[in-house]
Amino acid sequence: MNDFFSSAQRELTYLWYYFDVQLRQIAVYWAVGILVGSLVSVFLKDRIHGLLRNMGGSRFGAFGLVPAALLGVASPLCLYGTVPLAASVSRSGLRDDWLAAFMMTSILLNPQLIVYSAALGAKALAVRIVSCFLCGVAAGALVRAFYRNKPFFDFSKFDEPVSRDTDPNVWLRLLKNIGRNIKATGPMFLLGVLLSALFQRYVPIDLLTKMFGDNEAWGVLMAATVGVPLYACGGGTIPLLRQWLAEGMSLGSAAAFMITGPATKITNLGALKIVLGAKRFLLYLAFVTLFSLATGLLVNAVT
């Protein structure tokens, strides 16, 4: 019995060590990400979304996919905030292809997640930003090509967006936003650090290398597949990705994970199913899968 408790205490000590090291290395990115996300939400959100609304009267044509995708990256809203906004600007005349570009990048990336992803290193951060932007442009281009004369979205079940940042004191508004942000992301971030510590302690490095690195095509496919069930919160996956990259995961596999994860997050899929309907929802899943695989293989080929 004493040997059992001694062994358990030793394992807990090791786990705490790995958890503590991971937390110290990455917590600053989480904290800065929280601050940046809240600052954008309180001070810039209305301006960003105003620019999107103003695009409705412009004649950019296919070139409008670029600013629409960029605005999606800059938007701090989650998908359940993005869909009502998209419904509102759609009713005001914004084209479906531009909306597709905006919504796709908004699903994949936001200012807060960009800061989080800096913990992965400059190369991985650049891959994430560029691939997510191109995914949005590609989604918009496909909608433009195949749904130019017929509607792609159905926003009839979504009302006008409601802002939660309503306190008349701007600094209290910011503090409340930071509090909501911590509450929403904190538990998943800590869970991600814990999972990373468990992987570091109990999963052999050569196993991860074989899964995500040795056979690059297989590694990309595995990462794209693993991204579906594992992705619950962007901040929560950063510790895992950081650990996997350190232990041999290819950059292309990481890129595939960073696309399929947020794109197939359960909470996102529920809203998308309502907006797209069954047929277009399946097209969305096929597009995300193929784009993530192609991106991962291309990144591995050039890095």
Walkthrough of the structure:
By secondary structure, the protein is an all-alpha fold. It has one domain (20-159, 187-302). It has 12 helices and no strands. It has helices at 2-54, 65-74, 79-91, 96-108, 111-117, 122-146, 170-202, 205-214, 216-230, 234-246, 251-263, 266-302. Helix 2 crosses helix 6. It starts with a helix and ends with a helix.
Supply the key terms:
303 residues; mainly alpha; globular
Low-pLDDT runs of 5+ residues are: none
Which sequence of SSEs, written as H and E, runs from N to C? HHHHHHHHHHHH
Gyration radius (Cα, Å) is 20 Å
Instruction: Bin the helical content.
Output: over 70%
Number of helices: 12
* Class from secondary-structure proportions: mainly alpha
Number of strands: 0
Question: End-to-end distance, in Å?
Answer: 52 Å
- State the oligomer: single chain
What fraction of the residues are assigned to beta strands by DSSP?
under 5%
Estimate the mean pLDDT confidence: 87
In total, the number of domains comes to 1
Summarize the structure.
With 303 residues, this protein is an all-alpha fold.
Task: Itemize the secondary structure elements and their pairings.
Elements: H1 2-54, H2 65-74, H3 79-91, H4 96-108, H5 111-117, H6 122-146, H7 170-202, H8 205-214, H9 216-230, H10 234-246, H11 251-263, H12 266-302
